[in-house]
Amino acid sequence: MLQRIQSLFLVLALVCTGLFYALPFGEIILADSSSIEMKITGLEYIKNGQTVFYSLLPLLIMISLINIITLSSIFLYKHRMLQIRMNVFNAVLQLGSIGIMFYYLSNASKEFGIDYQTGILIVLPAVAAILTFLAIRQIAKDEALVRSISRLRK
User: Fold this and answer.
1) Angle formed by the axes of helices 80-112 and 5-18, nearest 10°
2) CA distance 98 to 9
3) Angle between helices 57-74 and 5-18 (to 10 degrees)
4) Residue range 98-121, pLDDT digits in tens
């Protein structure tokens, strides 16, 4: 039911985390002023003449799980308490993904022995968590309204 405000919040949260599939969330700045983009799929660089792939599979799985939970939560509008529980778990995952991103950025920069730079995309899980929290509040208001109307009918 997409006309509810909580569904709009969840769709916006889905868009925020869905951007990770297309855009890099950070860069490793090399000594020769070039940079390597870090995406959730990983990064690829040349070391001693060989191409090395630095995999970020746990982050890819986490972002995919966040997107699946958000999408399925949109369509659970008839089961509000389950929807609230799923969104609380989802908000924790969204905030945890920020920590994992910083871990991978710092780990990759230590491997290169140089600095890293984050993109604006790194704050999107926090924005998605805020939107999820706002959706939780609206779902709880709906549940309270339905329960109060059910009390009046008895």
Assistant:
1) 20
2) 20
3) 160
4) 999 889 888 888 877 777 778 788
Task: Please give the model's pTM, rounded to 2 decimal places.
Answer: 0.86
The predicted pLDDT at position 68 comes to 97
Taking residues 79-87, what's their average pLDDT? 94
**Domain range for residue 9?**
5-145
Q: In this structure, is residue 121 part of a structural domain?
A: yes
Cβ burial of 118 (10 Å; 0-12, 13-18, 19+) is: middle
Q: Is residue 47 part of a domain?
A: yes
pLDDT of 152 above 70? no
- The domain total for the chain is 1
Give the CATH number, domain containing residue 42: 1.20.140.150
Crossing angle, helix 57-74 and helix 80-112, to 10 degrees? Answer: 160
Amino acid identity of residue 89, one-letter, is: F
